[in-house]
UniProtKB/TrEMBL annotation:
Keywords noted in UniProt: ATP-binding, Chloroplast, Isoprene biosynthesis, Kinase, Nucleotide-binding, Plastid, Transferase, Transit peptide
InterPro entries the UniProt entry points to: GHMP_kinase_C_sf (IPR036554), GHMP_kinase_N_dom (IPR006204), IspE (IPR004424), Ribosomal_Su5_D2-typ_SF (IPR020568), Ribsml_uS5_D2-typ_fold_subgr (IPR014721)
Name assigned to this protein: 4-(cytidine 5'-diphospho)-2-C-methyl-D-erythritol kinase
Annotated source species: Cucumis sativus
Pathway the protein acts in: Isoprenoid biosynthesis; isopentenyl diphosphate biosynthesis via DXP pathway; isopentenyl diphosphate from 1-deoxy-D-xylulose 5-phosphate: step 3/6
Comp. bias intervals (Low complexity): 374-394
Protein location: Plastid, Chloroplast
GO biological process: terpenoid biosynthetic process
Gene3D superfamilies named in the record: 3.30.230.10, GHMP kinase, C-terminal domain
Family the UniProt entry places it in: Belongs to the GHMP kinase family. IspE subfamily.
One Pfam family in the UniProt entry: GHMP_kinases_N
Amino acid sequence: MASCSILCSSQLQFHSISFRKNFAFNSHGSQGSLAFASRLKQQRAITCNSTASKQQFEIVYDPDERISKLADEVDRDAPLSRLTLFSPCKINVFLRITKKREDGYHDLASLFHVISLGDTIKFSLSPSKKDRLSTNVSGVPLDDRNLIIKALNLYRKKTGSDNFFWIHLDKKVPTGAGLGGGSSNAATALWAANQFSGCLATEKDLQEWSGEIGSDIPFFFSDGAAFCTGRGEVVQNLPPPVPLDVPMVLIKPQEACSTAEVYKRLRLDQTSKVDPSSLLDKITKNGISQDVCINDLEPPAFEVLPSLKRLKQRIISASRGGFDAVFMSGSGSTIVGIGSPDPPGFIYDDEEFRDVFLAEANFLTREPNKWYQEPASSSACSPPSEHPESSSAR
């Protein structure tokens, strides 16, 4: 609570006066009141002298209480006013880049799968006609550069909804990681906006619309596992190709890979020639192994960040077969070890890796007509990196 006090010596009884003004959401209100409130915040103490009488009183300035009252009014009037949702990330079990398109993007063929690491997003209906986003980490844009705000704007554009929101993003997924954290946030925001509006749109509508703001976003409207083609927006829903309880560990260095720079260095004549459908068949029949976890973006990403190649090689060497597969997810810079939740010991012992992001995870799906649920045991081992959240579709 923001407060200030005006103190005067007095023989009279102490009085308490409350002065409240919603300065955050009523920008067209009285300029005089706003100026007075500003002066009160800056003034700590004033000594007053009076020949007739001396009083002592305190003026308390409390904008938070006014905001809470507005929120309570919204709660009373709306059938749904607050919603907390889990926003999980994904890995690419394999990622083939098949060609470059005339529009400058690349066609891909990839097995996407949601995993149990994710963010938590709290939505509340706003009494004003403006979205307000807050988060627990610095460096994340809070305006319409953020995919959450882009998604809410998109929903209003498509449906005519006039709902606006207060949103708090509790971030656990590192950005610049190849895990689709921002895309998941956008999909979660579209789902939330639709719930608040009484489901004006179908899930198919949300999936199709979401491709306008990010290539990875449509995937999250699958059941959790999908074979994705095109730019990633063509989503073929799949039954889980591997058991959901297969453990994994995510290891991400502080450095991030620029998606644009990775694609700039991509040479199609040096990519794998393996048929993506055959990779999917092998995984479905035999599970995950090193030979099927092909990522055509690894070579250019390792050019951008040579230390990432050394990290992958060292994990493979140190694990001594402890992982079924070790590979990079998306355009990096997360290295995924499938088959064990434990990183090699050097990650803990070597000073070079003191600041890496570590998390254990499992595969995750969702039930029809419900959003993803956070597993009770899901937790990150270290805080997320602080990089701006933005769309990275290429």
